[in-house]
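Re: [ENG-882] Designed sequences occasionally contain unexpected residues at chain ends

Forwarding the minimal case from QA. Structure tokens:
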């Protein structure tokens, strides 16, 4: 029995928040980066997309690496690489250099969240898992929530490079805490699991070609031979990856999808990520565009969202422990959808109060949506499948987010051109295209009602939770 359960949780929260914050801290700086490097939105979005794609490529390796080097070394390695990547981002002198540095950063960040969630899930008993996920989720969600505010302040006073420098002290602190409080993981059994080279190659090609497919559509290559060829490769490699996962020792144990609860939870996570990453990517452009807010003002306007999450996440985790899975998730989806609709109504002359209101509603909705769904997903698998479940959780978030940003980028281009064709000025055309993007996002997140209705109202205790080793932390 560990005596430092709270410090273990703090360590995991710090590592997770450091990685998670990079999904949004850059967003407020994107207009500044775009102006400095004289790039369009379609080019600067690769600062986000390259990170998310690379992040996704690394996730299937987690289960294999865990079996070879253990959670302890994997967590330390990931935090270290992420910290070094952050330094390289800060030193980038061009947009291509920044994108490459983001890829390096993501190669470390890809394992932090799923590894920390797996450590948490395997260490905390079932009756405390929801609360632990709720607190851990503060780091996982507060990072993206506080990112815009912190990014706005740092960019305003110290330039966009500073949004990456901030990771360095956090990374060092996380490494030191890991050395002190995660030592119990050294005793974790290891085995020389065979590396599924064919499976990983198929997965990597699938991720890259899928992103390229969306990129071609954004360049109006619809129904061209090039698009159809890339789409065929995407579908084929996905099929081959799934097929290879049925043999030997696959990188991801796809038998987790035999559980209906796992499938429904996964669909919610994917839809949520498509809508939120796609919609929220444009919020800084909306605020700093026709509305005329500065970087720091935009960041401060997003702060209420983070504060609401800070207050509501532990409550949502407690409700998940009490078994309120379906009802809490449905309320969360409704609130997030409403917040996106309200974002679409923000216009010139809209009061600050009516900008802060959807921020608060989104923060509450996200808090109620994340912890119960994550608890449902983890309770749907056996202890031996925890690494795969947490990897799939992160993979679905990043894959959904990457697809969301790409799709909404395509929609933004088409809608913007539509308004330009109607002789709107460029600034008004972009503003109305951004508004319409939020409206579409509200509809997409509402689709999560369908799988959410099928979630269990009461979570169940998996058989492995009855084992003594599953009750390591009290």
């Amino acid at each position: 029995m560990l005596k430092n359960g709270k410090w273990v949780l703090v360590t995991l929260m710090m590592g997770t928040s450091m990685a998670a914050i990079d999904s949004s801290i850059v967003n407020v700086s994107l207009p500044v980066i775009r102006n400095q490097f004289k790039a369009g939105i379609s080019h600067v979005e690769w600062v986000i997309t390259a990170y998310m794609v690379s992040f996704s490529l690394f996730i299937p390796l987690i289960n294999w690496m865990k079996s070879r080097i253990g959670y302890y070394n994997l967590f330390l390695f990931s935090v270290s690489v992420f910290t070094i990547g952050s330094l390289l981002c800060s030193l980038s002198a061009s947009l291509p250099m920044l994108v490459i540095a983001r890829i390096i950063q993501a190669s470390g960040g890809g394992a932090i969240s799923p590894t920390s969630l797996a450590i948490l899930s395997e260490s905390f008993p079932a009756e405390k898992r929801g609360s632990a996920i709720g607190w851990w989720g503060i780091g996982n969600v507060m990072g993206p929530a506080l990112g815009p505010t912190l990014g706005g302040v740092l960019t305003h006073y110290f330039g966009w490079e500073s949004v990456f420098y901030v990771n360095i002290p956090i990374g060092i602190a996380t490494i030191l805490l890991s050395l002190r409080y995660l030592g119990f993981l050294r005793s974790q059994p290891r085995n020389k699991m065979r590396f599924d080279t064919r499976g990983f190659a198929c997965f990597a090609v699938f991720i890259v070609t899928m992103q390229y497919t969306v990129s071609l559509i954004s360049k109006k290559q619809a129904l061209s031979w090039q698009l159809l060829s890339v789409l065929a490769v995407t579908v084929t490699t996905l099929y081959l990856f799934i097929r290879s996962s049925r043999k030997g020792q696959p990188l991801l144990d796809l038998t987790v999808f035999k559980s209906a609860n796992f499938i429904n939870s996964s669909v919610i996570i994917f839809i949520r990520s498509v809508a939120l990453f796609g919609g929220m990517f444009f919020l800084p452009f909306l605020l700093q565009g026709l509305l005329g807010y500065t970087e720091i003002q935009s960041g401060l306007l997003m702060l209420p969202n983070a504060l609401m999450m800070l207050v509501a996440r532990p409550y949502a985790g407690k409700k998940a422990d009490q078994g309120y899975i379906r009802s809490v998730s449905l309320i969360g989806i409704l609130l997030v959808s409403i917040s996106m609709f309200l974002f679409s109504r923000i216009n010139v002359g809209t009061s600050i109060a009516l900008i802060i209101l959807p921020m608060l509603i989104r923060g509450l909705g996200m808090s109620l949506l994340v912890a119960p769904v994550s608890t449902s997903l983890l309770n749907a698998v056996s202890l031996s499948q925890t690494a795969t479940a947490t990897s799939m959780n992160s993979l679905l978030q990043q894959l959904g987010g990457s697809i969301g940003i790409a799709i909404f980028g395509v929609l933004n281009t088409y809608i913007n051109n539509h308004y330009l064709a109607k002789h709107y000025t460029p600034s008004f055309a972009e503003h109305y295209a951004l508004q319409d993007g939020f409206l579409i996002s509200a509809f997409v997140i509402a689709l999560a009602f369908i799988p959410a209705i099928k979630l269990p109202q009461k979570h169940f205790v998996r058989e492995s939770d009855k084992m003594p080793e599953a009750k390591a932390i009290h």
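QA comment: On inspection the terminal residues look reasonable. The CA atoms of residues 213 and 229 lie 9 Å apart. Proposing we downgrade this to a documentation issue.
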